[in-house]
Amino acid sequence: MQIQTIDIRSITDPGEGTLSFFEAERDLPFAIKRIYYIHGVPKGILRGGHAHKNLRQMLWCPRGDILMRLDDGTEKREVPLNDPTKGLVLGSDIWREMLWREADSVLCVAADAWYSEEDYIRDYDEFLRYIGKKK
Ligand code: T46
Protein backbone atom coordinates (compact mmCIF):
# COMPACT_ATOMS: atom_id res chain seq x y z
CA MET A 1 0.00 0.00 0.00
CA GLN A 2 1.29 3.45 -0.98
CA ILE A 3 1.50 4.99 2.48
CA GLN A 4 4.39 6.41 4.45
CA THR A 5 4.75 7.30 8.10
CA ILE A 6 6.90 10.30 8.95
CA ASP A 7 8.62 11.32 12.17
CA ILE A 8 7.71 14.98 12.58
CA ARG A 9 10.74 16.94 13.78
CA SER A 10 10.19 17.86 17.42
CA ILE A 11 12.08 19.91 19.99
CA THR A 12 11.31 19.29 23.63
CA ASP A 13 12.15 21.81 26.32
CA PRO A 14 12.10 19.85 29.57
CA GLY A 15 9.14 20.96 31.65
CA GLU A 16 7.90 23.30 28.88
CA GLY A 17 6.51 20.93 26.29
CA THR A 18 7.39 20.17 22.69
CA LEU A 19 7.42 22.13 19.45
CA SER A 20 6.87 19.99 16.35
CA PHE A 21 7.30 21.18 12.77
CA PHE A 22 7.68 20.04 9.19
CA GLU A 23 8.63 21.79 6.00
CA ALA A 24 6.90 21.24 2.67
CA GLU A 25 9.09 19.70 -0.03
CA ARG A 26 11.76 18.88 2.59
CA ASP A 27 9.99 16.72 5.14
CA LEU A 28 6.97 16.20 2.88
CA PRO A 29 7.18 14.77 -0.64
CA PHE A 30 5.02 17.61 -2.02
CA ALA A 31 4.28 21.34 -1.83
CA ILE A 32 1.31 22.28 0.36
CA LYS A 33 -1.64 24.06 -1.28
CA ARG A 34 -4.25 23.54 1.44
CA ILE A 35 -4.49 22.82 5.14
CA TYR A 36 -7.66 21.72 6.87
CA TYR A 37 -8.49 20.21 10.23
CA ILE A 38 -11.39 18.30 11.72
CA HIS A 39 -12.41 18.95 15.31
CA GLY A 40 -15.35 18.76 17.70
CA VAL A 41 -16.03 15.14 16.76
CA PRO A 42 -17.62 12.89 19.41
CA LYS A 43 -16.07 9.52 20.31
CA GLY A 44 -17.16 6.62 18.09
CA ILE A 45 -17.88 8.71 14.98
CA LEU A 46 -16.68 7.35 11.66
CA ARG A 47 -15.84 9.91 8.96
CA GLY A 48 -14.40 9.53 5.48
CA GLY A 49 -15.68 6.75 3.28
CA HIS A 50 -14.04 7.93 0.10
CA ALA A 51 -10.87 7.86 -2.00
CA HIS A 52 -9.06 10.49 -4.03
CA LYS A 53 -8.10 10.22 -7.69
CA ASN A 54 -5.01 12.45 -7.46
CA LEU A 55 -4.71 14.13 -4.07
CA ARG A 56 -1.70 13.55 -1.82
CA GLN A 57 -1.98 14.46 1.84
CA MET A 58 -0.19 14.28 5.15
CA LEU A 59 -2.35 13.61 8.17
CA TRP A 60 -1.43 14.08 11.79
CA CYS A 61 -3.24 14.14 15.10
CA PRO A 62 -1.93 16.81 17.51
CA ARG A 63 -4.35 15.68 20.18
CA GLY A 64 -6.29 12.48 20.79
CA ASP A 65 -6.61 9.13 19.09
CA ILE A 66 -7.98 8.47 15.60
CA LEU A 67 -7.84 5.14 13.79
CA MET A 68 -7.23 5.35 10.04
CA ARG A 69 -8.78 2.43 8.15
CA LEU A 70 -7.18 2.18 4.73
CA ASP A 71 -7.95 0.01 1.74
CA ASP A 72 -6.26 0.08 -1.68
CA GLY A 73 -8.55 -2.58 -3.13
CA THR A 74 -5.97 -5.31 -2.52
CA GLU A 75 -4.88 -4.79 1.06
CA LYS A 76 -6.58 -3.33 4.14
CA ARG A 77 -4.57 -1.65 6.91
CA GLU A 78 -5.32 0.16 10.13
CA VAL A 79 -3.00 2.94 11.27
CA PRO A 80 -3.55 4.67 14.62
CA LEU A 81 -2.89 8.40 14.76
CA ASN A 82 -2.33 9.18 18.42
CA ASP A 83 1.16 10.68 18.57
CA PRO A 84 1.66 14.37 17.69
CA THR A 85 5.18 13.60 16.41
CA LYS A 86 4.01 11.15 13.72
CA GLY A 87 2.52 11.90 10.32
CA LEU A 88 0.89 9.68 7.73
CA VAL A 89 1.36 10.41 4.03
CA LEU A 90 -1.44 9.06 1.87
CA GLY A 91 -1.31 8.93 -1.88
CA SER A 92 -4.28 8.70 -4.22
CA ASP A 93 -6.41 5.59 -4.81
CA ILE A 94 -6.74 4.69 -1.13
CA TRP A 95 -10.17 4.28 0.38
CA ARG A 96 -10.09 5.83 3.87
CA GLU A 97 -12.27 5.91 6.95
CA MET A 98 -11.39 7.68 10.17
CA LEU A 99 -12.71 6.42 13.51
CA TRP A 100 -12.67 8.85 16.44
CA ARG A 101 -11.48 6.68 19.33
CA GLU A 102 -11.32 9.63 21.73
CA ALA A 103 -13.71 12.59 21.91
CA ASP A 104 -12.35 15.91 20.62
CA SER A 105 -9.39 14.32 18.86
CA VAL A 106 -8.14 16.68 16.17
CA LEU A 107 -7.21 15.53 12.67
CA CYS A 108 -4.96 17.93 10.73
CA VAL A 109 -4.28 17.52 7.03
CA ALA A 110 -1.81 19.16 4.64
CA ALA A 111 -2.81 18.58 1.01
CA ASP A 112 -1.07 19.13 -2.30
CA ALA A 113 -4.13 20.58 -4.08
CA TRP A 114 -7.03 22.96 -3.53
CA TYR A 115 -10.38 21.44 -2.65
CA SER A 116 -12.12 19.81 -5.59
CA GLU A 117 -15.15 17.55 -5.22
CA GLU A 118 -14.27 16.15 -8.69
CA ASP A 119 -11.26 14.42 -7.13
CA TYR A 120 -13.40 12.36 -4.72
CA ILE A 121 -14.79 8.86 -5.23
CA ARG A 122 -17.48 8.47 -2.58
CA ASP A 123 -18.94 5.12 -3.63
CA TYR A 124 -16.94 1.97 -2.74
CA ASP A 125 -18.03 -0.07 -5.81
CA GLU A 126 -17.12 2.86 -8.04
CA PHE A 127 -13.71 2.98 -6.30
CA LEU A 128 -13.10 -0.71 -7.06
CA ARG A 129 -14.09 -0.19 -10.70
CA TYR A 130 -11.86 2.91 -10.92
CA ILE A 131 -8.70 1.24 -9.60
CA GLY A 132 -9.47 -1.92 -11.61
CA LYS A 133 -9.43 0.13 -14.81
CA LYS A 134 -6.02 1.58 -13.94
CA LYS A 135 -4.33 -1.81 -13.33
C1 T46 B 1 -9.92 13.23 3.53
C2 T46 B 1 -10.21 13.03 4.97
C3 T46 B 1 -9.00 12.61 5.76
C4 T46 B 1 -14.52 21.70 1.73
O1 T46 B 1 -15.38 22.54 1.35
N1 T46 B 1 -13.19 22.01 1.65
C5 T46 B 1 -12.21 21.14 2.04
O2 T46 B 1 -11.02 21.48 1.94
C6 T46 B 1 -12.60 19.86 2.55
C7 T46 B 1 -11.54 18.87 2.98
C8 T46 B 1 -13.94 19.58 2.64
N2 T46 B 1 -14.88 20.49 2.24
C9 T46 B 1 -16.31 20.17 2.42
C10 T46 B 1 -16.83 18.97 1.66
C11 T46 B 1 -17.99 18.51 2.52
O3 T46 B 1 -19.13 19.28 2.21
O4 T46 B 1 -16.51 19.87 3.80
C12 T46 B 1 -17.53 18.90 3.94
C13 T46 B 1 -17.04 17.71 4.75
O5 T46 B 1 -16.09 16.99 3.96
P1 T46 B 1 -15.99 15.39 4.00
O6 T46 B 1 -17.31 14.81 4.27
O7 T46 B 1 -15.27 14.95 2.76
O8 T46 B 1 -15.05 15.17 5.29
P2 T46 B 1 -14.34 13.85 5.77
O9 T46 B 1 -13.95 14.06 7.18
O10 T46 B 1 -15.15 12.64 5.44
O11 T46 B 1 -13.01 13.75 4.84
C14 T46 B 1 -11.97 14.71 4.95
C15 T46 B 1 -11.53 15.18 3.54
O12 T46 B 1 -12.68 15.64 2.81
C16 T46 B 1 -10.85 14.10 2.75
O13 T46 B 1 -10.17 14.68 1.66
O14 T46 B 1 -9.05 12.58 2.96
O15 T46 B 1 -10.83 14.16 5.60
Main sheet strand line-up: 1-9-6-11-4
| Residue windows where pLDDT falls under 50 for at least 5 positions | none
User: What portion of residues is helical?
Assistant: under 10%
Shape descriptor reads globular
Kindly provide the name of the CATH class.
Answer: Mainly Beta
Summarize the structure in words.
The protein has 135 residues and is mainly β. It has one domain (3-134): Jelly Rolls, CATH 2.60.120.10. Helices cover 8% and strands 48% of the residues. The protein is built from one helix and twelve strands. It has one helix at residues 124-134; strands at 3-7, 9-13, 17-21, 34-38, 46-52, 57-63, 66-71, 76-81, 86-90, 95-100, 106-111, 120-121. The strands form three sheets. Strands 1-9-6-11-4 form a five-stranded antiparallel β-sheet, with no helix packed on it. A five-stranded antiparallel β-sheet has the order 8-7-10-5-12. A two-stranded antiparallel ribbon has the order 2-3. The two termini are 14 Å apart. The mean pLDDT is 96. DTDP-4-keto-6-deoxyglucose (T46) binds at residues 34, 36, 38, 47-48, 57, 59, 96, 98, 109, 115. The site of dTDP-4-keto-6-deoxyglucose has 11 residues, from β4, β5, β6 and β10.
What would a concise description of this structure say?
The chain contains one helix and twelve strands. With 135 residues, it is mostly beta strands.
